[in-house]
Amino acid sequence: MDYDYLVIGAGISGSAAAYELAALGTVALIEAESTPGYHSTGRSAALFTPNYGVATVRRINKTSQAFFLNPPAEFCDGPLLTQRGMLTVAAPGEEDLLAPILDLSTDGYEIRKLDAAGTLSLAPLLRRERVAASAFESGVMDIDVASLHQGFLSGIRRRGGLVLCGKRITKLDHRDGLWKASARDFSVKGRIVVNAAGAWAGEIGDMAGAGPIGLVAKRRTAIIVDGPPGLDIAKMPAVDYVAADAYIKPDAGRIMASPGDQTPIEPQDVQPDEWDVAVLVDWLQRETLATVSHIAKRWAGLRSFVADQAPVLGYDAAAPDFFWLAGQGGYGIMMAPALGRAAADLIVSGCLPADLLANGLSERDISPARLA
Fold this sequence. Notes:
By secondary structure, the protein is α+β, with helices and mostly antiparallel strands. It has two domains: 211 residues, FAD/NAD(P)-binding domain; 142 residues, D-Amino Acid Oxidase, Chain A, domain 2 (2-Layer Sandwich), CATH 3.30.9.10. The chain contains ten helices and 20 strands. The mean pLDDT is 94.
């Protein structure tokens, strides 16, 4: 069978695009690993707010909100979002750095300044001497990543799409109006290739003869440790820092912490660097009341960026019927609903959805042509 759309990469972005395209034609979603979302989606502890990221990302996040709050019938069994909140903490002497964060406040996602006492009342885990003030956004929500991803994958199958795992594409050929995607013991043909291969999107682009977009894969490290005995942190907001990239987040009664690292690395089954973990543990003990005697879990994931940190969606100028869906950085999960629709509409009609346009996004903002 020849398909209308071959979507390479079954992470959250590829799954969202395949879900939308499956309502418009025949789709094969092709994943290199045995499990969809293994490298990035499955290693994420995602939050939702329209106030994260560069301006392009914020416009896309804002458009995703309606889907998160009201997913289609049969998409999932429960809510995709639950209340969390986010504190951006300033240490003594850093208070003025909160101003740009406070300026991001929007209707429904207001950000207000708290003094040290107000900050510590919400996050008693923090060391008192390390807190001068914070910016608090109460509307930040936890995303049920597993339900979101499975909702897309189940929806693809309900719409007649095919999900293929364990098929690492090693060759792409275009002939007589069709792409042939080949793996070691497998091949499939389709009219349009959607390159949603995450950190491997550059390699897939090379196979297709597409122009470069300057995609760089970066490692993000995280650990889970126990909190201080007797301190209930389950409902504590997530915490990040105005003068550092590190952040912490309650996770099933424990603490998830990350240095927010973005270490360039070749695409691979990335593992945490022991030095990064040691530095993170030291930082966590200096900033919080946690005493780390045991790390319950440690891992690393891949985030992929282009130079302007905005996603790349659009047909390639050199490779026929080859569509980029890449460079989501650390925002792929919260952007996924809007990016899935954007990809489908651009592929089929050449236009962005009306709500994305109304929120100020232009095709140029995300086109691969901007990176030429």
